[in-house]
Fold each of these.
Amino acid sequence: MAIKQLTVFVENKRGRLAEITSSLAEENIDMSALSIADTKDFGILRLIVNKPDEALEVLRGKGFLVQITEVVGIKIPDRSGELARALNALDNAGINMEYLYAFISREGESVFIALRVEDNYAAENVLTNAGFAVLG
Amino acid sequence: MSQRYFNKEIETMPREQLKRLQSEKLVRQVRHVYDHVPYYRALMDESGVSPDDVKGVDDLYKLPFISKSDLRETYPYGMLAVPLADCVRIQSTSGTTGKRVIAYYTQHDIDLWEECCARAIVAAGGTKDDVVQVCYGYGLFTGGPGLNGGSHKVGSLTLPMSSGNTERQIQFMMDLKATILCCTPSYAAYIGESLKERGYKPEDNCLKAGIFGAEPWTEEMRRDIQKSLGIKAYDIYGLTETSGPGVAFECCEQHGMHINEDHFIAEIIDPDTGEVLPEGEKGELVFTSIDKEAFPLLRYRTRDICVLTSEKCACGRTHIRMSKPMGRSDDMLIIRGVNVFPSQIETVLLKEGYAPNYRIEVDRFNNSDTLDVFVELAPEQFSDTVSGITAMERKLSESIKTMLGIQPKVHLVAPKSIERSEGKAVRVIDRRKLHD
């Protein structure tokens, strides 16, 4: 059920991010989410795109260190307290989370969240039981 | 009044006479080695040289060279020239794995080594009234034992501090009014900083001189240390293979290190052809011990690049002087006093599953060496979290530390981001300005 996230290792060098986004644009790949975890020396770029397998090939071809990571995607109502409710459900079930980020939804009343957890299957069950719609 | 020489007759011997002394000793040394070291005998037989062909210093060029690889091949006893029962001590190189060399000493060998160190201490102004603080490491490393023995021979009060524990170093230095400091130049600089941090001014200590060696240092570093400690800083040179520190030492002129030529003959060769170069030319330093019993080495290639001069020195010593080493003819780096070969880092990378694509950057900040290792990540090792990658960096850093004894900062970088070059890869960037 999980959704495919592209994870790209990016050295802190000028123009790297521009190179990645341009490479994807050239192939008409559309991004719906982008998140970066960075340190002094490097960053880890996480992308949700419409054609992940194609994007993987494109970036590999350009010499990037890139892989596909399966993450849990959920749709939550765009209302105060909804994310907290989802995270509490995971916490109560003892599921550890590495990171999360929000991404674009074309539906006005809801938000998409990508979650990286240890066990996707367990997390999806917990979230479904809590009433959230799981993507993918 | 300060004593100027430890052994005036030898140290100021006219060069002609010194050469005769060297020739006599060389002939005996060659015979001793040939008779007692099968490995060396085979080497000489192979080169078609018999001990009878060496009648003096002028015949030295006929002998084959030996190098560290010979010493490794004959580890642990293969170069021993006396029965083990006649040996009283071993010392060993800094212990970078796979490159360890064990040197053996009879009491005679210890005595001559300690005398070399005593000459260095006296040249730095040391007398029996001095308090010599030795903060080179004690143990297998030759620094501590060598200067300790030299200080005994001079009759100075010796403080066998060994390295580290700066708080205690400073306490003893101040409470016992140490007058001569012996350590690595980077540690001397560190002690200078630490004294300043504690509010001491250079004139607050009783130090007058320092004898610093075991790692490369610059004139600029000398000025800094002299200023921060309020002393004169003297260079000392040596290597475990030839005894330890004291093979050569600086006098009050601070202009080149006098080689103890009654014990060691120095030559400068072209590192590529092995041809002996005339005095004043830059090349690889080669030493022949001429007075050793247990571990004599004939024409040992040090890999250090330097220049020799026998020009008269104002201090009165007649022994030839060597410049500070200006580099190495192999790829060895000396980082924080530790010998580091890039190949050792490569070994660790391969063992840990990395490709051997790496770059080593060495620099010096506040007189302390830094070591940065850049390594390419392989796709299969990629972790999608920052903590995963920093954990990999830490693990690799620890493995390299286990191998080298010093901790590098490891940076994982993208595949193919380390420059490839045709032919010999440039793996090392040394930004330390060690040579003026």
Amino acid sequence: MTTTVSRPELEVAPVTATSGGWLHELRAIGIVWQRDMVRMKADPARMVSTLLQPLLFLFVLGAGLSAAVRGGTGGADFKTFLFPGVLITGILFTAVFSAISIVWDREFGFLREMLVAPISSSSIVIGKCLGGATIATVQSILIIALAGTVHVPYHAGLMFGLLGIVFVTSFTMTAFGLVLAARVKSVQTLMPMVNMLLMPLTFMSGSLYPLGAKAPQWLDIVARYNPISYAVTSARTIVIHNLPADNPTRTLFTGLTWLGWPVPAWLDVIVVAGVGVALLSVACLLFARTE
Amino acid sequence: MTKTAVAACTTTEAAAVKVRGLVKRYGPIEAVRGIDLDVTPGEVFGFLGPNGAGKSTTIKMLCTLVTPTAGSAQVAGLNVITQRTAVRRHIGLVFQETTLDEYLTAEQNLKFHAAIYGMSRRAIRPRIEAVLDLVGLSDRKDSPVRTFSGGMKRRLEIARGLLHSPRVLFLDEPTIGLDPDSRQVLWRYVDELRRQEDITVFLTTHYMDEAERCDRIAIINHGTIVALGTPAELKAQVGDDRVRIVTGDNPGSAKRIADKLGIEAAPDGDALLVTVPDGEGFVPKLFDVGISVQSVSISRPTLDDVFMAHAGRRIGDEEAAAAPRSQWMRAMSRR
């Protein structure tokens, strides 16, 4: 094997000494996030397919339930009530699944490429968490766009409010997925596990029916310990507040209470964000320790 | 090959890899038992040993992926225990298994790497072009990696390992699982790399012909280094050259060789077998003493014999399961 390829001398580009420190870590977070964006763009089919579940909930389950409960709701539109719940439920799976992509990264070796780099493993985890939150938020735009079809008004404040809540919730759920991904190393084990955890969380969050006096007492109590209830309640609060004052759908809604004290919507969001930050910290610790 | 290593030894430059009394224990098991090692800048250093001999553990300690139990190690003049991040910035790693994102293009994989290694933004584009050119993948930079062959992926990984201009490039079994052609191509690029970049290459391999291409090799067995030197030195330690001579009159020739040269020539089938330190230097003497030589062949101890002597088994036994075909081919070509 003789090669007489003559190439110009390579210019040796020294690694800049200035890198390191938090700027370098921020850049690492950015590129991990950006990779998720590139992959999302490369695979639009996946995003559309994950929309199916919320659409089924909203227009099939919603239509069926509306018809069944019409007599008892005093003219309220159940689909309007359902909308924020479906919005939040829809992003749960997207967020958790995008976190799980780190398990694929582990399986295909790319996680190793990230972990041997001169960066903190926390930067990878944080970048991944922001990536998952962004993907879920982008997807939710498609659901939010359907608001008018279930008589939710297109007020700018409401739309941005919903997006904000969606982002915070997605962030928390991605962090939740990352905690799972840190401990469970095989995708085959993780997939059923995610379903097993997310289904009860969804059903015990009041996303598909009213909590408070209308719900069985045990369910109302359980929901208070479920972070997703807070996400759903905050989204529902701002939707209801943007309905006309005489809209009968308002009567279906009751917020969460702590020892009888009604929790304001902003505090709901803070609860969700707090849980997210806690989960993210746990994920960072787990990745730093085990990989 | 060896001249560069020897010459570099005499310079005052700090060792590329410097290991002193390095130990790694996993519970009661001592995987690495206090090894010393110096790798000179610019060298291609081969690290050989049977599976479970402590090879991977040593490499992992040098790459800061595993913390040593005792001893010290410096890579590019940086301490692997106290300066982990700095060490990582100055080494390139290519693992046995692929660590590329198959859904990204070649260039996207490299850009990702540039960012997490904190390369200066201006340097990225020219450097990506340079390393892709070095491994002959410039025309495929926009292809998703999943469309690449095994050999191309490995070359891209080497390009990526070089991207941030590391001082030391670690290649862990860089050709495992590749077909013989791809292995040849890959080595051509490693040779090219030696010419173009100021870099030290530290590699492990199971292939004898690849070990031959190293400036120096070390053999590790049961957690200690049992042999260290240039391939020629190690082979010389194991034994002498064997010269096989076919003559018109074997018994007569044997007598002449014994009388005139004082060397015993043993009959070997229809030929005579002579064992001497310097086979090539010996052949002209045959003509001096007036033997009618019909044919002569010289065989040297191979690195395989070296490995056998130090590790107690053939080096090829290891990867037999991984690449039976190429091992068979090597066995055929050796004779």
